[in-house]
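Why should sequence recovery work at all? Because a backbone constrains its sequence more than one might expect. Tight turns favour small or flexible residues, buried strands favour hydrophobic ones, and helices have their own preferences. The token representation captures these environments compactly. In the example below, the structure is given first.
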């Protein structure tokens, strides 16, 4: 089994701080994740910093709209450096297929590697009671499996899920079907708004492909040291 890859979420409000994190963390070879906060507040600045470091990054924008709109968005977002894009599996099979097709076609136009498209299943901030309120039948694991089937059939590279779902997903869809796992907290760290959190060791043992860590690294006084400690844990 290949080692889990560390993804650092650049979820900070200050562009100068985000650029500093890129400059300090990119040499570690981690994948950097640009989410809502950075993309909408200072997208061009953070993308320029990533480009200057030749850093690969994930665009975690969780696209969710009609197929034509998502297709156009993916076409606009794919550019050199983008390694992974996220969409919502609840957008349905046609939307997922449009996202994958747009990523493939745009990458061919630019002669760059095709970014992986990962479909969000059940947010790690949601528990059983939350799913019931949304009208979804069953627990997070059952819903993750159903949504992952849509993603697989649409040729997505994998799904965004909690570590708790990884083993079942790998059993159902094979080890090549990727898992991108947020909600990772080192032992002793506060879980914040994550209801289905896991430690880096638990993620590694479950077979997670991507392990997403944000605040325990970016809020640390020594983010490089914090990232190195998690990398060591992922490597066993």
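From this structural description, the recovered sequence reads:
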């Amino acid at each position: 089994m290949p080692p889990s890859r560390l993804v650092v979420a650049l979820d900070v409000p200050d562009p100068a701080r985000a650029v500093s994190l890129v400059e300090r963390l990119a040499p570690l070879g981690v994948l950097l994740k640009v989410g809502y906060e950075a993309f909408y507040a200072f997208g061009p600045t953070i993308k320029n910093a990533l480009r200057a470091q030749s850093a690969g990054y994930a665009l975690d924008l969780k696209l969710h709209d009609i197929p034509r709109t998502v297709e156009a968005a993916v076409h606009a977002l794919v550019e050199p450096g983008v390694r992974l894009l996220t969409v919502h599996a609840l957008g349905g099979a046609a939307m997922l297929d449009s996202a994958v097709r747009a990523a493939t076609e745009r990458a061919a136009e630019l002669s760059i590697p095709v970014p992986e498209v990962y479909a969000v299943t059940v947010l790690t901030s949601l528990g059983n009671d939350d799913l019931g309120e949304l009208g979804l039948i069953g627990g997070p694991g059952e819903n993750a499996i159903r949504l992952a089937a849509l993603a697989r059939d649409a040729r997505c590279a994998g799904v965004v899920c909690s570590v708790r779902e990884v083993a079942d997903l790998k059993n159902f869809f094979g080890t090549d079907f990727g898992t991108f796992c947020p909600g990772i907290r080192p032992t002793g760290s506060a879980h914040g708004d994550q209801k289905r959190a896991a430690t880096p060791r638990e993620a590694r043992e479950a077979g997670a492909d991507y392990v997403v860590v944000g605040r325990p690294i970016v809020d640390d006084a020594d983010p490089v040291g914090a990232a190195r400690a998690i990398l060591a844990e992922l490597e066993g």
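A few observations help interpret the result. Residues 5-234 form a domain with the TIM Barrel fold (CATH 3.20.20.70).
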